[in-house]
Write a structure and sequence with these properties.
4 domains, alpha+beta, 411 residues, Nucleotidyltransferase, domain 5, 3-stranded antiparallel sheet, single chain, 40% helix
Length: 411
Amino acid sequence: MHIDVVPNRGSRPAYLLREAWREGKKVRKRTLANLSSLSDEQIDAIRRALKGEQLAPVGELFEIVASRIHGDTDAVLATMKRLGIRELLSSRPAFEAEVVMGMIAARVVAPHTKLATTRWWRTRTLPQDLTIEHVTEDDLYRAMDWLLDHQETIEKKLAGRHLKNGGLALYDLTSSYFEGKTCSLAAMGHNRDGKKNKLQVNYGLLADKRGCPVAVSVYQGNTNDPKTLMPLVEKLKKDYGIERVVLVGDRGMIGQAAVEDLRKVPGLEWITALKSTQIRALVEGGALQLGLFDEKNLLELTHPDYPGERLVACRNAELGKLRGHKRQALLEATTKDLKKVRTMVNRGDLRGAGRSVSGSAASSTSTRSPSTSSSPLKMTASSLLCAMTRSPPRRRSTASTSSGPASPRRR
């Protein structure tokens, strides 16, 4: 038996299952079935069976020894390739660079410890793609040491890509609390994580105007923001070859003392914000009139206290709303606490300096101002109320009041 193919003009050919035999000198044929309704795959399977080939399900012919996920890490690697990350790490083939590539991809997809990362790799095709199948956690730590040795070269490449003469450079300092006692940089300092009595390490981040990281520097945990500024300026000038740049930092980074140092650097300008005491002095001196502020347009002014600088301001309506909500929350929290005090006074449980405070004095606390009575309780409660509704002295913000203008920017 065999399959004959009969061409059809303009349509799919006919497939006929036939058998043949010989009668004397003639060959006879007989059609057993019309296979035209079958798919090409089915017809091919019948043809192979007629040839004597042994057919079996695919699942019986192959053994699945491993199944690894490919899509997520492949997408990250493709993005890293488009960004030129591999060329940033090293211009020559390097095993450590491939390991660093793998750690970056793992950090994006599934952040883990170094040991857990090597275990997670076994569930992905990433190690095969980077030819790092047999790395251990020790290899990852060695790759980080290699990365530290090449940090200066990598940052110079990043600066060449993203920092331009006459452009903006953003810089700020932050911290991470530290567990342990073996780090020489760990120290007690201003904790930004809200972790009390914790050692910390400070690190500064330099970025371009879009916020793309260019360089990172690490300092002891008790290092103040301004102390890291001039080393950064020196790095911009000498290491990166940036002759003219506008440095952008917050009011804690670029204060009055830092401004005096920056004036001495040729080709360097800055953008920062005034502190609340400086804004208040401008308002009280009449140099800054709140009625001139607009929510869309910027207000520019000069002042003798800031020679050679421009003060720029705009009213921040959204920040005003935010501060209004915070003020209301503080008032509600204070009222709730004062109700507890009133209850204690009514019970006679609250006592002042050598004498108890009467309930009538407590009842008048919420209706009278501090100037109308000398009650110790009333003065204390009112002072507490004022203290809780006043902006914290170290608070960083862009508005001097909830409905007032934004802090003038210095340049």
